[in-house]
Every structure is written in C-alpha cells, then in structure tokens.
Specification:
A five-stranded antiparallel sheet has the order 4-3-2-1-5, covered by helices on one side. The chain has one helix and five strands. It has one domain (9-59). The chain is 10% helix and 40% strand. The longest helix has 7 residues, at 47-53. By secondary structure, the chain is mainly beta. The chain is globular, with a radius of gyration of 11 Å. This is DUF951 domain-containing protein. InterPro entries: DUF951.
Length: 68
C-alpha cells in the first residue's frame, strides 16, 4: 500500500473530461481531495476508490519535478 501526502502528483487510470489524467492531492485521510492539473476541477473520493484509480505517482511532495 502506497502512502500519499498533500502535494503528491498522480496519474489516474481514467482521464478527466478535460483530457488530463494528472491530478494533485490536496487532502488525505479517509477521503481524498484531488485537483485536476488540466482545468483545476476538484473531486472528493473515498480512500479505497482513490487507491484503485491511481495508475502511477508522478512526483512526491517536496521533490523536484522531472519532465518526462
């Protein structure tokens, strides 16, 4: 089980209707709040649904972002 922190950037399995699949974690706990990096839309998800939907972690909070 991965540990997530506020500020982590993740790529989800399904893309948002705006076309972006990259999100930033803005709240953790029993529920997660994530913000779309394409259109800034925010969504609340239960922890279990969030963890199943994450494809990969793009960057951790506090790390220098790597352009890929």
């Amino acid at each position: 089980m991965a540990h997530y922190a506020v500020g982590d950037r993740v790529r989800m399995r399904k893309s948002h209707p705006c076309g972006s699949a990259d999100w930033e974690v803005t709240r953790t706990g029993m529920d997660f709040r994530i913000r779309c990096l394409g259109c800034n839309h925010q969504v609340m998800l239960p922890r279990i649904k969030f963890e199943k939907a994450v494809k990969t972690i793009l960057s951790r909070a506090g790390e220098k972002e790597v352009n890929s």
